[in-house]
Design a protein that fits this description.
The chain has two domains: 9-177, Rossmann fold, CATH 3.40.50.1970; 180-359, Dehydroquinate synthase-like - alpha domain (Dehydroquinate synthase-like, alpha domain, Up-down Bundle), CATH 1.20.1090.10. It has 13 helices and eleven strands. It has helices at residues 32-35, 50-64, 82-94, 109-121, 135-141, 179-196, 198-204, 214-234, 249-258, 265-282, 288-300, 312-320, 349-359, and strands at residues 9-12, 19-25, 44-49, 69-73, 102-107, 128-132, 149-151, 154-158, 167-170, 332-337, 340-345. It has a four-stranded parallel beta sheet with strand order 4-3-5-6. It is globular, with a radius of gyration of 20 Å. It starts with 8 loop residues before the first strand and ends with a helix. The chain binds nicotinamide-adenine-dinucleotide and zinc ion (ZN). Zinc ion (ZN) binds next to helix 10.
Length: 361
């Protein structure tokens, strides 16, 4: 295992003299202080998700030392709120952190998103590092500079684009992650393969994804990270290429909202990917065989591929309220093939309807 001198994957943001290293591997958290200029900060606040804290508090203290300010935040999407942001700002303020200080966010996508938001707005922005501890956050949420929280019943409505100094994805954290959360994270890895890497897609098809660990998992996470970094590097502000990453999310987000968060993010995205692959097939682009391969891979990863939605109308409404739509037109990420996508595609309502019918039990 390459833990002695980890090699990061980089992405950068044009116009900003910062290249963001993303480290992936097992037991990397132990080396945290050597992976960036830790000793140059006047003070450090570590923000930890409460469930991560239950299992990893001793390890975090051992690695970061007792001089670090420590803030545990409540877990779960419902706490990705202004109330939690205020708690973080209060702690930063009471502990007198300033622009020479550092925030380290340890947790899933929720903790990384909200911790990064609080750091990026406190004193007009102080440096932060993300230590994602779910597969979903390691593969996706912690990378790319989007921060935020939910407001007024809408997901991630308030947020910033802000880059961490480094992202440290240690797969050791995944050993305490519930299996359902692990599977949910695989949805984003599968998404990366579908939109950009036919070879990775074929490789994933040969593995039992739900049991993946060790070097095999590290390798796949690293490949998936490379895809996300390459896309973000090309288009950090989602003007063109980055829209590809929304594959499965047009329908996925709508399902998440219509099902009142009963599904995990990756689970909703898995069903969304089926619907969006289906419309790609129905419009005569994606072949039926490739469509079946996508369906097979998602179900082998133990992800749901259908929902009992009595409320198709609600899913439609939620799709229309998506913040990415322009003048009420739904813009689709469309598959021409595995590894080949088009963005901003507008589709006839009949095809969308048929695609949605397919995912309803
Ligand atoms: N910024 C982005 O680009 C981006 C992209 C995708 C998703 N997101 C956001 O990410 C969030 C979803 O992230 P998530 O799926 O990681 O959910 P999450 O952060 O809510 O974590 C899922 C659950 O796992 C627990 N947990 C986390 N790490 C653990 C560990 N190592 N051991 C045991 N339990 C652990 C958490 O307490 C929580 O209960 C959403 O808020 C979504 O909006 C952001
Ligand atoms: Zn997602």
């Amino acid at each position: 295992m390459k833990t002695s001198s980890p090699e990061p994957i980089f992405y950068s943001v044009p116009g900003v003299t910062l290249t963001i290293p993303v480290y992936t591997g097992h037991n990397l958290f132990n080396k945290l202080k050597s992976l960036f200029s830790f000793d140059t900060f006047s003070s450090v606040l570590v923000l930890v998700d409460e469930n991560v804290n239950k299992y990893w508090d001793k390890k975090i203290l051992e690695v970061l030392g007792k001089d670090t300010f420590y803030l545990v935040i409540k877990a779960a999407e419902k706490n990705k709120s202004l109330t939690t942001v205020e708690k973080i700002w209060t702690s930063l303020s009471q502990n007198r952190l300033d622009r020479r200080s550092l925030v380290i966010n340890i947790g899933g996508g929720m903790a990384c998103d909200i911790g990064a938001f609080a750091a990026s707005t406190f004193m007009r922005g102080i440096p932060f590092v993300n230590v994602p501890t779910t597969l979903l956050a390691q593969a996706d949420a912690a990378i790319g500079g989007k921060t935020g929280f939910n407001f007024n019943g809408l997901k991630n409505t308030i947020g910033t684009f802000a880059s961490p100094l480094a992202i440290i994805s240690d797969t050791a954290f995944l050993t305490t992650l519930p299996q359902r959360e692990f599977n949910s994270g695989f949805a984003e890895i599968i998404k990366h393969a579908i939109i950009a890497d036919a070879q990775l897609f074929a490789d994933l098809g040969k593995k039992k994804l739900t049991n993946l660990k060790g070097k095999e998992l590290d390798k796949i996470l690293s490949q998936s990270t490379q895809i996300k970094c390459d896309i973000v590097k090309k288009d950090p502000y989602e003007k063109s290429d980055r829209k590809k990453l929304n594959f499965g999310h047009t329908v996925g987000h709508a399902i998440e909202m219509a099902c009142k968060n009963k599904l995990l993010h990756g689970e909703a995205v898995a069903i969304g990917m089926i619907a969006e692959a289906r419309v790609s097939f129905l419009s005569g682009h994606l072949s039926e065989n490739k469509f079946r391969d996508i369906e097979k891979l998602l179900s082998n990863a133990n992800l749901p591929i259908q929902i009992t939605a009595t409320n198709k109308k609600l899913i439609f409404e939620k799709m229309l309220s998506d913040k990415k739509n322009v003048s009420q037109q739904i813009k689709w990420v469309f598959l021409e093939d595995i590894g080949k996508v088009m963005v901003d595609v507008v589709l006839p309502t009949e095809i969308i309807n048929e695609g949605l019918n397919y995912i309803l039990k």
